[in-house]
Amino acid sequence: VITHPGVTWSRGRQRRSKGIRAAAATLAILLLAFLFLAPIVVLILTSFREGTPGNPGGWSLDRFLEVLSSPQTWLVTLNSVILAFSATFLAVTVGALLAWVGQKTTTPLRRFFTPAMVVLMLIPNLFYGLGWVLIMRGSKSPFAMIGQWLGLSEPIPSSGWVVLIVLVAGFVVPPAYLFMLGPIGKLDAAMDDAARVSGASRWSVARTITFPLLRPSLFGVFVLMASYAFSAFELPLLFGSPAGINVFSTAVFNASSGATGTPDYAGAATLSTILVVFVTVLVLVRWLTVGRKQVATITGKGYRPEPRDYGRMQWVFCAFFILVILISGVFPILQMVLGSFQSLFGVSAALTTENYAKLFADRESWAAIRTTLTVASIGGLLTVVIAVPLAYAAKKLGGWVRAFAGLVTWAPASIPGVVVGLALITAYLPVPGLRNLFGTIWFLLIGFVVVVMPIATRAVEGSIAQVSTELEDSARVSGAGPIRAFLSVTGRLVLPSFFAGWFLGGIVISGNLSLPSLLSTPALQTVAVRAYNLYSQGEIARAAALFIVMMLVLLTTALAVYLAYRAVRAVVWLVRRRKTRQTSPEALKAHKEGMTGEFKEEMYVSSSVGSGAAPRGVRGGL
Amino acid sequence: VLLLAGCAADSDGSGGEAPAGDEVEAFGDAAAAAAMDELYQGALEAGQSQVVVYGPPAHEDLIAAFEARFPGIDLVYEHLQGADRDTRLEAEATSGNHVADVAYDGSTGIIRLSDNGKCVPLDSVYDIGDTFLRQDGEMAVSSITLFGLVYNTDMLTEAELPTSWEDLLEPEWKGKISLVTPAAGGVSAFTFAQMLVPESANKQWGMDYLEALKAQDLNLVAKDALVTPAIATGETPLAINVAYTYFKEVKTQGGPVAFALLDEANEYTEGASCVLKDAPDELAAQLFVNWRFSPEGQKVLSETGSIPVMPGAPSVEGVPPIGDIPIMEILPDDQRVQGYAESVQKVIQLFT
After folding, report:
1. Nearest to A494 by CA among A107, A247, A183
2. Confidence of residue A13 (pLDDT cuts 50, 70, 90)
């Protein structure tokens, strides 16, 4: 019999707990292996296969060795590493800084930081890239006008390393900001105060307290964003290729698209395998350096995440925020809005609503909007529903289960979409039952779950890791079972991250192009595919109009969901308050006396942190 | 329309078989109209209400014309080419859930599908001839797309244009030429590969030429569709390897652009279709591919900028007859897939 203050656990219950833990571990491993490991293994094996995937063919090392020995392979690898690391470093630094400014200072406009970043997240990369093309290129572009106004003899460069890195970073800043929001918001100012009282400088506090606490999250977000930057395709093509800078995704795309006459599946798979190795090394380095340390910043008593005034410096912060949102969205969006009202994108001086009129009359575009909303909402939800128990199991079980989960769910992020689609088809089609799902919405949803899982995992993992186990232990000590303890403590605390993961997953799904092009059917065409078709046909202004309508639909949906969420919370709060008032004072007093003093504190903290924006009356009621 | 026409024929006591004058004009003659009607009625009776085409997106006028001619059958294009299309077709075959009816692409891609046993012969209503119906009747070429120069008319005059590939190496063109990037394969890579491969009569330009061209600070544009808009906005005054269909789109919308050809070795591609094996809407697919060869189909193709292949079909406005254009020679069908692979690879490496 195990005894704790105020509670005893029987051996039977202990055994049951172990059984549940073993079952959870087995389930987690099987799910991971099926969803993520199988496609990666298939992908690696394809490097050594002759013929098309899924068909009989021999084994050969020739193409694998040929690709590895080509100087071009290593040139594009070097370019990719430079681009991914530099753009990600810039984006995560900017994102983390803005997340800190938004939550820990009283900077003007700070309440607009998160809504602005959420809106910027809605911009598809093709749309963002084309907007910048219009700004920078052409004899009548804003850049050309600025050049003339400044009297420059040479045009301002519109491609090359600096342009590419800044624009890729500008595109990655919003997700980096949103991922850093949770970890930075939960930093305890009392720790900083303690160091400052002890005589430490601001820099010293940042170096010895703030940064070490944030390191796991920072590194995690860095690895995730770098993984995505490795697979970035449109932006390097628009701003790197004109200057002769080619990256991995371009080479993989060329190999798999049959640019050389016949599709080179083995070559594409070999290049992708190199990417998988890169990401594996990154995730392992993260795990070995910071991943094994448990960092909990939401504890029981005295947790006070309060913002403070940094004086005139806050105006600099505000100006920096404005600059970032101009680069990351406002400038390209304005250009695209303008372009959507031109009959010839970027050329016509006269404005027209013709593109919108054609769009509203186009049945395929409306069908695409409906399909996108369906797959984005269901796919995002499925992903996060799998991600929460996986991240929780990884934290609870620790060790190699955690490392395995981190590794396999990360790899799909770095592989170009077309190869992920290829790997999924090759891995899942031989499975009876699953095979029949091909061409249905379910196969597409499975594909999206795999692709979006790294984002969803990242969204919930940080919050789960930061919830101190003492909170759940308190619930267990008070007699709650493991599932109830998880749902009532960790579940409530990660609820905001759950919704964030759902939303981010949905956004990524709605903008994904390559996966639906391989896994969907004409009846399941998404907006990204429809817009890409219009764009490929030279109908860029109509593609811009479609993107803008889709962004407005997404924005309206997000706002409606948010308002519904707030309404439900308000109703729950009212019901609870009524119940509390109906409880007799004697019963309430007896109930309180039955608890240990410490656990009362824990309950207070868990409800206040978990609710996030909880009405003050909830805390007062408790 | 055909159903209504049939009703009209019944009501005037003519026996219900004679096609209306409109159909005779659209399909060429009464026999062709009757054969097309048979295919159409067969498709409707079999419940085939759509034709799914995997290929580059079609011009909306083409879709509208087909759907107006054959009410009840939707023409659905999905943008799938190359490996993406091949992978999807393999997956459909493995799962048993067939979706695609027709593949449309350049002839090299369709030859590969035909060689791999993915196509069935066209049940041809028209006398297409061996030149445009190849691969044992499985590959039907209904139009040709011409590639050439596009220039900004505010920045260049016709007299200033280059007339040969060598002219492009002149110092005056340094930094002033746009083209779709050969690093992504496609038309630029294929054209340059043709300039390396010794076909029977082609002039050989060789790698030295391509290296000198690359040294002209080319503006490599990401996608075909973005090249003409880049010229219209004045990004550079001149572009090479531009499809006439993309140029026409921008010109129609009022862009300050014009199209021109070199005096030697211009590039073209064949617009080829094949009805896919196990197509779920095979009758509707046969109807669609045949319609592309009908006088009406050929007229619509010419209006969208593709050069129709059937005798008597209207020419494309602003483009001389294909026989009068000096074109770049291409290897025969049976050598094409493998014959250019190595050279395309070299071109991609040069521009990567």
Report:
1. A183
2. low
The rounded distance, in Å, linking the Cα atoms of B15 and B10 is 6
Q: How far apart are the first and last CA of chain B?
A: 53
Alpha carbon of B206: minimum distance to chain A alpha carbons (Å): 18
Q: Which of B49, B86, B87 is the best residue to mutate to test the A interface, defined by the most A CB atoms within 10 Å of its own CB?
A: B87
- What letter does residue B204 receive in the DSSP assignment? P
How close is the nearest chain B Cα to the Cα of A430, in Å? 8
Going by their DSSP bridges, the two strands A7-9 and B219-221 should be labelled as unpaired
Region B324-337 average pLDDT: 84
Residues in chain A closer than 8 A to B95 (CB atoms) = 429, 435-439
Using the Cβ of A257 and the Cβ atoms of chain B, whether some distance falls under 8 Å is answered with yes
Task: State yes or no: pLDDT of B12 exceeds 70.
Answer: no
A344 — contact with chain B (CB < 8 Å)?
yes
Closest to B189 (Cβ–Cβ): which among A52, A259, A539? A259
CA distance B225 to A532: 11
- The tokens describing B244, both together, are 């006439």
Nearest Cα neighbor of A413 from A235, A581, A225, A542 is: A225
For the question of whether the overall pTM of this predicted structure is more than 0.90, the answer is no
Angstrom distance (rounded) from CA A240 to CA A449: 30
Reduced to 3 states (helix: H, G, I; strand: E, B; else coil), residue B258 is strand
Could you report the predicted ipTM of this complex, rounded to two decimals? 0.71
B-chain CB neighbours of A134 within 8 Å are 233
Token look-up 């050309």 returns: A144
Which of these, B52, B44, B42, lies nearest to B125 by C-alpha position? B42
Task: Note whether B56 contacts A: Cβ–Cβ < 8 A.
Answer: yes
